[in-house]
């Protein structure tokens, strides 16, 4: 089985949550410089508003108008009164992906994938998994391999901190093991890895530091909660101009020196092997994908 088309390399620098109950936010998202949008039916929506939010999320996806932005609906868990109907409505609306909350083991995701198969046998809709429970983190590798529908793992650092009984610490020290395990699992299975949210809307320096840390850990992008956070993530997770120029020099040097035949060459005095060329090509492809999104 192949992965859904939305698993192709695409920018996920900025992934913005919005409560699907907020019509104004859904409309505003059409104008924002954002790579992906999560229409939330779960924790940001009060129980009394769940059904209206579900209808509004499905309607927004069906009506479109979001251009090249990736559209994701976060459903409620299948163990809640809303989860099964959310899954049906989301699958029928055909977003790029459905985000499953609080995934604790592979069986949970297999269950969702099994139900989704009857709703979307052509497998157009991908699955994303929230990594936000201690069991989920411990099972990260098995979750990442649970179904070919899965294309991204998303950190849920708020729920995880709650479950761990951990405290906010400098540089997210209490989260580091979990963050690294999720990046490891995602990379081993060829999935995207998206970092958790930064909750303080007035701390621009803190957001920039946390984005830089996410880049360093290997994440593809960051989940966000407000439009004012977009620029920081778009900048931090995009390849820098110097890195792109360097990548192009590596690719050109490799081709000029016939690296495929030699196995190893030097470019500007540096040893270059095929792995460096792969890295360089990935960076250039990401930059092209960002430019193509417009
Ligand atoms: C945090 C907010 C509740 C703040 O709302 P508000 O005070 O209304 O913001 P502003 O007045 O500053 O809004 C200015 C304009 O921007 C639009 N807006 C605001 N937020 C969003 C958004 N997220 N997406 C799109 N547009 C947004 C407003 O409509 C205003 O527009 P205009 O009228 O044209 O000027 C609010 O930002 C918010 O609800 N954020 C999202 C909260 C959310 O979705 N939370 C759930 C995900 S977090 C989570 O669960 C993580 C994970 O599971 C874990 O465990 O860690
Ligand atoms: Mg959560």
TrEMBL record:
<dbReference type="InterPro" id="IPR015813">
    <property type="entry name" value="Pyrv/PenolPyrv_kinase-like_dom"/>
</dbReference>
<keyword id="KW-0456">Lyase</keyword>
<feature type="binding site">
    <location>
        <position position="132"/>
    </location>
    <ligand>
        <name>Mg(2+)</name>
    </ligand>
</feature>
<dbReference type="GO" id="GO:0016829">
    <property type="term" value="F:lyase activity"/>
</dbReference>
<dbReference type="GO" id="GO:0006107">
    <property type="term" value="P:oxaloacetate metabolic process"/>
</dbReference>
<dbReference type="Pfam" id="PF03328">
    <property type="entry name" value="HpcH_HpaI"/>
</dbReference>
<protein>
    <submittedName>
        <fullName>Citrate lyase subunit beta/citryl-CoA lyase</fullName>
    </submittedName>
</protein>
<dbReference type="InterPro" id="IPR005000">
    <property type="entry name" value="Aldolase/citrate-lyase_domain"/>
</dbReference>
<feature type="binding site">
    <location>
        <position position="74"/>
    </location>
    <ligand>
        <name>substrate</name>
    </ligand>
</feature>
<dbReference type="InterPro" id="IPR040442">
    <property type="entry name" value="Pyrv_kinase-like_dom_sf"/>
</dbReference>
<dbReference type="InterPro" id="IPR011206">
    <property type="entry name" value="Citrate_lyase_beta/mcl1/mcl2"/>
</dbReference>
<dbReference type="GO" id="GO:0000287">
    <property type="term" value="F:magnesium ion binding"/>
</dbReference>
<keyword id="KW-0479">Metal-binding</keyword>
<feature type="binding site">
    <location>
        <position position="159"/>
    </location>
    <ligand>
        <name>Mg(2+)</name>
    </ligand>
</feature>
<feature type="binding site">
    <location>
        <position position="132"/>
    </location>
    <ligand>
        <name>substrate</name>
    </ligand>
</feature>
<feature type="domain" description="HpcH/HpaI aldolase/citrate lyase">
    <location>
        <begin position="13"/>
        <end position="227"/>
    </location>
</feature>
<keyword id="KW-0460">Magnesium</keyword>
<comment type="similarity">
    <text>Belongs to the HpcH/HpaI aldolase family.</text>
</comment>
């Amino acid at each position: 089985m192949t992965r859904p088309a939305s698993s192709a390399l695409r920018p996920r620098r900025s992934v913005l949550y919005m409560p699907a109950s907020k019509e104004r936010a859904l409309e505003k998202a059409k104008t924002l410089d954002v790579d992906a949008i999560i229409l939330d039916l779960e924790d940001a929506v009060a129980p009394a508003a769940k059904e209206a939010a579900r209808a509004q999320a499905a309607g927004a996806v069906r009506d479109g108008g979001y251009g090249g932005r990736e559209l994701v609906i976060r459903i409620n868990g299948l163990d809640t009164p809303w989860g099964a109907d959310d899954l049906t409505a989301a699958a029928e609306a055909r977003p790029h992906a459905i985000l499953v909350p609080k995934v604790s083991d592979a069986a949970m995701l297999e269950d969702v994938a099994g139900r989704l198969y009857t709703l979307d046998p052509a497998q157009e809709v991908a699955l994303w998994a929230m990594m936000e429970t201690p069991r989920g983190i411990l099972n990260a590798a098995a979750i990442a391999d649970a179904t070919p529908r899965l294309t991204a793992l998303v950190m849920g650092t708020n729920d995880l901190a709650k479950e761990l009984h951990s405290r906010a610490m400098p540089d997210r020290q209490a989260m580091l093991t979990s963050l690294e395990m999720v990046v490891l699992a995602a990379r081993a299975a060829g999935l995207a890895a998206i970092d958790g949210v930064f909750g303080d809307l007035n701390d621009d320096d803190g957001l920039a530091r946390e984005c830089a840390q996410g880049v360093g850990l290997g994440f593809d992008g960051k989940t966000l909660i407000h439009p004012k956070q977009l620029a920081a993530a778009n900048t931090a997770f995009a390849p820098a101009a110097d890195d792109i120029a360097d990548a192009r020099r590596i690719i050109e040097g490799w081709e000029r020196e016939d690296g495929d035949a030699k196995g190893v060459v030097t470019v500007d005095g540096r040893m270059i092997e095929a792995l460096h060329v792969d890295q360089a090509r990935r960076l250039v492809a990401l930059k092209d994908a960002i430019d193509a999104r417009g």
